[in-house]
């Protein structure tokens, strides 16, 4: 591996921009999912007061969430609490309390990649579920092209301990070992990576960074590595070609965990 290659997570602004390009080029949209969930809860239980605690280590994401809340109507029955901390920091803080808060619903959306001890995290948050409560986990599907990409090229790309290669296949094995019951659903999602095959395309370069978790991958990766990945990404097992576009399989898994 070329020494000039470095993890995308070493450059926060580059990571944020590549993530934005990922969202704009994919059928996955995370920004409003919290409020969509809360809207469904309010419709199911009209007039009930809801406490919504947000655990998020990124100040930028918390600000974005608050701005979205400010623009959204009919949230008067919802009390928001914001915690700028990781799930591990939240867990440590909660464990210092004499009595743990129980919750009717917990969701972990695209966040388990950033947890060092996933089984311990699952076990802890499962313990916070009230009777008949549910926990929703969303992450990339084991049937997606992410798993194929990580499995084949992960050892040749710069790693960072901030992020793990984990899919729903890994997660269900962990839940089975913990003896936790769950239901499993897959949702087809794609990402338009057509610009990755245009030399010097800014959008394509940022998508390359996101796909490989490598900062400035297009200019720092060994030519043979880039050529090999580029060839694979155009194969049917990684992407489909439709209307002149190359659509990467970005399928997601929704895992509903029972108390």
UniProtKB/TrEMBL annotation:
Q: Which reactions appear under catalytic activity for this entry?
A: histamine + S-adenosyl-L-methionine = N(tau)-methylhistamine + S-adenosyl-L-homocysteine + H(+)
What EC number(s) is this enzyme filed under? 2.1.1.8
Binding-site list for substrate: 28, 250
> Does the keyword S-adenosyl-L-methionine feature in the UniProt annotation?
yes
A single Gene Ontology MF term assigned here is: histamine N-methyltransferase activity
| Keywords of the record | Methyltransferase, S-adenosyl-L-methionine, Transferase
Q: Which SUPFAM superfamilies does its entry note?
A: S-adenosyl-L-methionine-dependent methyltransferases
Q: What class of enzyme is it?
A: transferase
GO biological process per UniProt: methylation
Gene3D superfamilies given in the database record = Vaccinia Virus protein VP39 (3.40.50.150)
| Keyword Transit peptide in record | no
Quaternary structure note: Monomer.
Role description: Inactivates histamine by N-methylation. Plays an important role in degrading histamine and in regulating the airway response to histamine.
The protein depicted here goes by the name Histamine N-methyltransferase
